[in-house]
Amino acid sequence: MQNAERLLELPPARIEAEAMKLVHSGALVLDRREGDEGEPLPPLCYPPRFYDAERNVAEILTDIALGAGKGRGRWTEVAPPPGLSAGQLAAIAAIRDAGLVILTGGPGTGKSTVTRAIIDTALANESPVLLAAPTGRAAKRLAEATGQRATTIHRLLEIEGGTGEFFHNAQNPLPEGLVVIDEASMLDLPLAEALLLALTPQHRLLLVGDADQLPSVGPGNVLRDVLAAADRPDSPIPVVRLTQIFRQAEGSSIVTSAHAILRGKVPDSDRSEGGQFYVVQARDSERAHELVLKAITERIPRAYGLDPRTEVQVLCPMHKGKAGTEALNAALQAHHTAGAPELVLPGRQPRIFRVGDRVMQTKNDHERGVFNGDIGLVTAVDPERQILTVEIDGDPVSYDSKQLNALQLAYAVSIHKSQGSEFPAVVVPLLGEHHVMLRRNLLYTAVTRARRLCVLVADPRALTQAVHRSDAARRFTGLRERLLAALRERLGERRTVRHIDTA
Questions:
Q1: Which of 74, 100, 144, 500 is the most exposed place for a label (fewest CB within 10 A)?
Q2: Backbone angles phi, psi at 2, to 5 degrees
Q3: What is the number of alpha carbons within 13 Å of residue 86 lying toward its C-beta?
Q4: C-beta of residue 289 within 8 angstroms of C-beta of residue 330
Q5: Cα angle vertex 201, ends 69, 494, to 5°?
């Protein structure tokens, strides 16, 4: 209400009166909530579909967590691989007889290792295994990490391109077994609801994610809300937090810098030969722009042998400004593909795509099998027919003039757009002009996108602000309270402590 008052410049009474009109007409749902001890909480207003989605998510998670059908059975124990931490062993033990398990931890803590061990346990118990992630790139990483087939959640549910409806739903659920969802921090409320509607109490569900990363781009804060409910000492939902950094990751200054950021410590540059993490000082956007271009076009290819078009990704807090995605994309395109065959899309601000350009799909296109966040290279242009061909994950994808609206240059992308992806090298400008976006989880997400090299081109004051500003932008949701209420209603007075907080 305070935000609406400020933005609309109207008195609170007028705003409240108009909101109540929407409530009475059914355009909004007013949810009067209670806290953990029955105390009244500030009410929330929802569009009806999000209100229903939040209720469905809470109810279905409760069904799965409590195994309402009792037909799931307990898996027999399988010898785990050697060298697992106590936390990893706890995750395997939890999934053997639980319906819902949450596995969370930062980089280098072994989430992929324990996920593989859990999959092996499922297969040894002759349980089908379904692996999925919110984006195509995250699904590809999951498949590489586990050696198993993984897909997007949309493909898992078999979305029907013409209607946008899912083939698998409450009336036609997925085959029973273990469902593993990676990068669960990216799950927004509508996608979480669609997934859960296709599950039954006989399924096992493993949610894997890093709760310290940015929340989903879409509405809701599903992973954090479920974690907040599961963290209650009387919760029946096992939460396994992996905190031990394994030896092979301890030598990575990317990993150690990411964990330093989480502790509120400004990371230092790696001084070792062939280091992995560097902070390059830039006090203003002009200098940052210059340093980013030099790093990508000269220093990184020369020192690390990386292809600047396909293996180095610029991640920006914002789109505008000299150190934003728009200006850096224009400069990098001019450097990499000047003189190459091009396709010009007319308009007040003409858009140009050239052969060799790095581009990103920005919307899900289920009929053509390309999804928001997919990155590829332009391989051919036909200016007369206004058609362009992009190679994405080895497959050629054709774009006509209408479909090109969903394509953008991707030498530089926003940090939000990079969620679920990893790149051999990332370069991140951080400046005072980005101050509205600078938060710890934004910086942490950017740093953890890098595999071999991370370079921060930063104003020291902006870097310090990002590290110290831990107040993630607030999302107004009621899923935590709704899930707690559903669990308590089903459990009655029974209390089962299942929280696991260990290395």
A1: 74
A2: -65, -40
A3: 6
A4: no
A5: 70
Q: Given this model, what pLDDT does residue 474 score?
A: 76
d(CA 90, CA 241): 10
Nearest to 397 by CA among 417, 367, 419: 367
The three-state secondary structure class of 443 is: helix
The alpha carbons of the chain give a radius of gyration, in whole angstroms, of 24
Report the alpha-carbon distance of residue 491 to residue 493 in Å, rounded.
6
Nearest partner of 500 among 103, 66, 81, 132, judged by Cα:
103
- According to the model, what pLDDT value does residue 57 have? 97
Task: Report the 3 state secondary structure along 383-407.
Answer: CCCCEEEEEECCEEEEECCCHHHHE
Q: What type of residue sits at position 258?
A: A
> Which amino acid appears at position 71 of this protein?
G
Residue type, 275: G
Q: Are 196 and 57 in contact (CB under 8 A)?
A: yes
- Span 250-266, average pLDDT: 89
pLDDT at 209: 93
Residues 426/455, Cβ–Cβ less than 8 Å: yes
- Classified as helix, coil or strand, 73 is coil
